[in-house]
Write a structure and sequence with these properties.
By secondary structure, this protein is an alpha/beta fold. Helix content is about 35%, strand content about 15%. The protein has one domain: 3-Layer(aba) Sandwich (Oxidized Rhodanese, domain 1). Helix 3 links the parallel strand 3 and strand 4.
Length: about 140
């Protein structure tokens, strides 16, 4: 009986760990407050390049001159997109860098759900772009 209890206890612990890992992927911001106040709203926080940012942070970055990059397909982009966005599908991103600004210019990336934008951020970062921010899903705008 003790072995059965230990087995199910271990199973529950492993299952709980897996759930904890999957929910960690849904965090919306990897930011550090600039005010020194840990309770500072995300809109006042300085975004970390390569990290997920909020809609307010994305809007501020774009307002300050960042490129807004939509990495969905051209068909998705044609259906709807954020005003002022440049469309380069993630599948062809490495071959279309001539359309992008300098490697130290800020770029805000988005897609439909956040999966492609995350991959695009990794791709751009590995190519030497230093100020790439992940809005995630278009609905986060």
């Amino acid at each position: 009986m003790t072995r059965i209890f230990a087995f199910f206890s271990l199973l529950a612990t492993l299952f709980g760990s897996l759930l904890g890992l999957s929910t960690g992927c849904n965090q919306t911001s990897d930011t550090k407050p600039t005010t020194g106040d840990p309770a500072a709203p995300a809109a006042l926080a300085t975004p970390r390049p390569g990290g997920r940012i909020s809609g307010a942070q994305a809007r501020q970055l774009v307002k300050d001159g960042a490129l807004l990059l939509d990495v969905r397909t051209t068909g998705e982009f044609g259906g709807n997109h954020l005003n002022g966005a440049l469309n380069i599908p993630v599948q062809v991103l490495p071959t279309q860098t001539q359309k992008l600004p300098a490697k130290d210019a800020p770029i805000v990336v988005y897609c439909l759900s956040g999966a492609r934008s995350s991959g695009a951020v990794r791709t751009l970062t590995s190519m030497g772009y230093t100020k790439v921010y992940d809005l995630g899903a278009i609905r986060n705008w």
